[in-house]
Amino acid sequence: MVQTPAKTLTMAEFLQRPETKPGNEYLEGQLSQKPMPQGKHSKLQGRLVTEINRIAEPAQIALALPELRGLA
Fold first, then answer.
1. pLDDT, tens digit, for every residue of 10-52?
2. Is the same domain home to 30 and 3?
3. Putative restriction endonuclease domain location, by residue (predicted)?
4. Are residues 1 and 31 in the same domain?
């Protein structure tokens, strides 16, 4: 059986797509379904966001927004 390669998407094309549940991720032009987060992942994500924002937000160099889709 021959498989046809998946069409590569641009970031702009990905951002134009409607939201799905569960969500999709964009990596190197391909879509993949986001895995369901686990407790350990959520705890680590919270700590990481807090630390990034503690350092970067006052200096106005970055802002961590864990659920933001795409680039602002």
1. 989 988 999 888 888 888 999 888 877 778 888 998 999 999 9
2. yes
3. 12-64
4. yes
